[in-house]
């Protein structure tokens, strides 16, 4: 029973932090000096505990360590082609004005205005919240890709801000990516079966770079030949 009560308090605190509910006084034990006692999160849901711990660290201005796992979008988001992911990356970098590898609330506001679908402050926070896995109130590149994954899977409400972002981005996630699949799981199975397509795209990129290098070499040789004719 005590664990359920503690879990309820933790959940309520997260909802207050995210603006989902209004603050309400809770019966929290206090020390003799009047300071609020820290909640013991060890015995409650690990995910809820981790979220609360990270949120408290952020509120106190601490540099909360992030998941250091390196993102390989070509492996994790195989329902998209390499070209689609590169287009998404270019779009992400375009609006990452601070060049910190994140799109914060201000940058998202600019993005939506540039796309012709301005949002209210609450609307922008709602957009971030839908894909904000680490609760830092901004979008990493992986979280940005999740927007297009949800759009391709038909998981976004038509009138939502994220739906407008995906629709107005001019990045087609339905033709090359999911091939008209009804659900994301069908799209995922289709992407796995087309692993050779990625290999072909990589080979094409390598061949294009090789041709470019050979062309540059040919131009340098031609320039040197002309230069020697005037010596």
TrEMBL record:
Keywords: Calcium, Metal-binding, Repeat. The keyword Cell wall biogenesis/degradation does not apply. SUPFAM superfamilies: EF-hand (SSF47473). Residues 196-231 are annotated as: Disordered. Residues 83-118, 119-154 form the EF-hand domain. GO terms for molecular function: calcium ion binding. InterPro entries: EF-hand-dom_pair, EF_hand_dom, EFHD1/2. This is EF-hand domain-containing protein. The lineage of its organism: Eukaryota, Metazoa, Chordata, Craniata, Vertebrata.
């Amino acid at each position: 029973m005590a664990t359920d009560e503690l879990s309820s308090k933790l959940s309520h605190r997260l909802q207050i932090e995210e603006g989902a509910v209004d603050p309400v006084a809770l019966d929290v034990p206090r020390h003799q000096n009047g300071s609020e006692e820290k909640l013991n999160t060890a015995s409650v849901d690990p995910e809820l505990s981790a979220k609360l711990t990270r949120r408290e660290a952020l509120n106190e201005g601490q540099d909360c360590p992030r998941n250091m796992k390196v993102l390989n979008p070509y492996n994790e988001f195989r329902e998209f082609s390499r070209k689609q992911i590169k287009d998404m990356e270019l779009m992400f970098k375009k609006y990452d004005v601070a060049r910190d590898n994140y799109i914060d609330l201000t940058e998202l506001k600019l993005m939506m205005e540039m796309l012709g679908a301005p949002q209210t402050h609450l609307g922008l926070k709602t957009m971030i919240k839908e894909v904000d896995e680490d609760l830092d109130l901004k979008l990493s590149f992986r979280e940005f890709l999740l927007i297009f994954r949800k759009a391709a899977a038909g998981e976004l409400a038509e009138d939502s801000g994220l739906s407008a972002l995906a629709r107005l981005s001019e990045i087609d996630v339905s033709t090359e990516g999911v091939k008209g699949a009804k659900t994301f799981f069908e799209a995922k199975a289709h992407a796995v079966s087309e692993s050779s397509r990625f290999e072909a795209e990589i080979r094409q990129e390598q061949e294009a770079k090789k041709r470019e290098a050979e062309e540059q070499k040919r131009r340098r040789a031609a320039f040197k030949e002309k230069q020697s004719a005037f010596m």
